[in-house]
Specification:
Number of helices: 6
Helix content: 40-55%
Largest sheet: 5 strands, parallel
Strand content: 5-15%
Order of helices and strands: EHEHEHHEHEH
Oligomer: single chain
Structural class: alpha/beta
Amino acid sequence: MKPLYNVFITHAWRYHADWTKAGELLEADRDVTWRNFSVPWYDPAFDPNTPLGKTHLHAWLESQIQPVDVVLLLAGVYGVKSSRKWLDLELEMARGQGKPVFVLPPIGREEVAPDVAALGDAVVLWHAESIRVALDGRRKAA
């Protein structure tokens, strides 16, 4: 039986090229089964700038992050200033739940800025095997 990995890919409530590519990368891996728990969607009836909307969105994010084995921080999306507030919230929730955070460089690059790399537990490459190896290493160390 193939191993199963539950993943949350950081997002800022919309689809980014990096988010789509990360999902495709995991889906194409035939050695394991990946489940993507991140859904960059929310009900527009809830305004995140109101107390009720903020509560709803926080609960929605928490429910996506809680069951995962790893959070993938997309450095390319983190580099977009308007996205950073959401990704910082997702990182805070991941840390609060003890989830490992792996940083993926921007698409087409293998390097991550040191300040962004410091936000994660490991920097991984755009290869499912790189993510698997880092995750398996964390599981064995636990």
